[in-house]
Amino acid sequence: MINLITYRVCVCFVTALERISRWVLPDFAHRFLFSRSQEFPVARFFLGALFGALSGAGLFLGLFHNVSMTSVNRLLAGYAFVAVCILGGAFSSYFRCSVLLIFPSMLGSRGRAYLMLFVLYGLYRGPIANIHRNVQDVAFSMGCNIELQIKHSKVMWREVMEPFMQVVQGIVEDNGEFQDEAKSVSRKFQSIRDEVMGQYGYDSMEQGPVAAGNSTQDLYAAKTMMRCDNVVEQGIERCREWFEVKWQDCMDAIKAPVINHILCVSMRFHFLCDIMRVMKPWCREDIPVEGNFGQTFDKLNFSIDALSREFSTNVVLQEEEQQSVFGVSALREDFTEGLSKAFEETKVILDQFLGLIQLLLSCTFITIFTSAFGYARQYTQDIRFDNIYITTYFRQIDARRKRADKRYLLPLKKAERGLFINPRSLSIHPSELKLVMAGLLQVVSLAVFVCVLLAVDMVLHHIFDIIRRHTFTKFSLTSSHHIDINVGGQSMMAKLLRKTIGAFNTSSNLDMQSSNQHCLPQPRALTIEDYLWSFVPLLMMALMCCLQVYSNRLRRVIAAFYFPKREKRRALFLYNLQIQRRISYTKRQRTRLMQLGTGEKTVLSGVLSRLERLGCRLRWCCVCGERQRGDRAVECTVPGCQAAYCPQCWRDLGRICYACVPTSNWDPVESCSDTDMYYVH
């Protein structure tokens, strides 16, 4: 009998849901859903397991699709998670209820947080990535223009330096000829070197003055003096030899012994040869040697000696970085490659931010999951939790008491309407309106941020497009020169100059046309898909703010379907609690109004009285505080009492103004015939 009563009670307070089920579902499905737990045990087990498998697969995809895992680990974790969900779906109605509560929870604040992350993801894939791409394109355009300028500078520099490079190259190629010329000069100069540095023309045993010399000039002067002395001595010696020869010839020609000595005596005057010694002072004083002969000979000898060695030519190129041109401390790599590396580092940071968003998506889905389980737990443990709805069973209790001529609650008094929510009404309750306004404020702030970011992207795209259209440049590089230098003569210096300076005899013409068309930036505008990725989640968030009211009501319906006995206790508790409030309602209102009293006239009352004289009557109900327009307000007729009531509150108070009734004249029995506390069964 108890089970039958419980079953009937369950049927009573899910009548609306049962009516919808009977109208939508087939008869066997309807009977299965609203049957007792002892009926259809096998079907309940397998359908519960199937429900657990499907819900487990969906929950696993929502939780782990953004988590980086290997395929094997993902498969093992998926099997384990689905297996646990199958067990929960087969044996636990609490689990099935919590899974269904996920769907209305998605329309709440956690669902909006999930969509907010989708908005951030759309912003990253849309305007943020587009701004990064356009800025990168403009930076590459600047780098391309700089490289183009460098290329043109290289062409012009090469055109200027080409003659000099030809001279150097000619010297390198004529290395063999220069060596032959140098050896020929060295051979020809050897006779001069022998004459200057040789030790002939004087007695080598008498080198005292020569050894005393410190320089080539002194040595050559000493050698010249000694050679001069030697010439004088040789002249004297030859003169004497001549006298000897002539004496012998004379003696041979004259055979007479005495006569030949007399006649040939003049051939014995060889002492006359000593007169030539008068030339020695001239050799010492007036020697014909220039003052800078030694220094000139040393330099010429050193040059000829260096020239006689192996002649070699090398081209050495020295690169010098011009920091003032590039504005950087070092330019070891290509400018565009440096920009690419910098933007790649930025892209890595953005990709890490994207990975963080994906991880937060999984964490947000976990909060939705825990929120659903938390609602089911509080629903079954806290009888006051979310117990503010006038349900079908609440109405049935009130109708039964009304038919039994007992105290009933419906319709609610005006002051009580703010405490309850009618789940059948589409209007939003004031307590629900706070959640809606908070959610809309969050959506509006996010929408402002999205609009600002899209506006920045649009402005940058417009600026970059102006740069693209107005920075097109054509370059024209022209150059022409003709050089003809003739060097005459057959000397070594003439040949050397002919080999070197003659290389400047070149002619060239340069005419190069180019443009920076390939360097112009190509800014990209956002597509319709990018805008949809940004605005569709925002519109869904705004819609969810409005639907959150009804999804919160739906949570109670789902919990009541799985826990009908608990729903009965909650409805009975709420009805009894409100009966107790209703019993003390008159007393509480009387106490409040008597504490308020008629009061003294304030500045506001004076202003209102003046407005009344002008025909503008403003009245507020003393009980519910609602403004009463026109003559709808019920005013107390007692002189000096300024209390006003709305018609319904006036009826609820039994048409008695407690603001001016003395306490001694008020009888609680008159205003409330039933003051005892009792419990409705």
What does this protein look like?
It is a single chain. Among the domains are: about 180-310, no CATH class; about 475-515, no CATH class; about 600-670, no CATH class. With about 675 residues, it is mainly alpha-helical. It is rod-shaped, with a radius of gyration of 61 Å. It has helices at about 1-15, 15-25, 25-35, 40-65, 70-90, 95-105, 110-175, 175-195, 210, 215-255, 255-265, 280-285, 295-310, 325, 335-380, 390-405, 430-470, 490-500, 530-560, 565-585, 585-595, 605-615, 645-650, 670; strands at about 475-480, 505-515, 620, 625-630, 635, 645. Helix 5 crosses helix 6 (about 95-105), helix 7 runs antiparallel to helix 15 and helix 17 (about 430-470) packs antiparallel against helix 19 (about 530-560). The relative contact order is 0.11.
